[in-house]
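hey so u asked for the seq, here:
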Amino acid sequence: MILGKVIGNVVSTIKAKGYESKKILIIQPINPAGNPKGKTFLAIDAVQAGVGDIVLTIDEGNSARTVINEPDTFTIRTVIAGIVDEIAM
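ran it, structure tokens below
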């Protein structure tokens, strides 16, 4: 899992089959202190996340398809699986 912050939305008027009803967000990986770490990436939203939310993402195709309950009919790699309420260290 990757800890990240939602920093934007992706707007696409034309999407490949399987992606039509999916919301895609831009994620900035962060460390537990909230500092940016690494390059941004795109993820399909499975939990109604929004800009500014701290989220947990899964970056592995089979697990991602399981989270959004999709069969192997289209390619997906990264999905937002949870919204973080608090980080206690």
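The chain has a mean pLDDT of 89. Helices lie at 61-67.
lmk if thats what u needed
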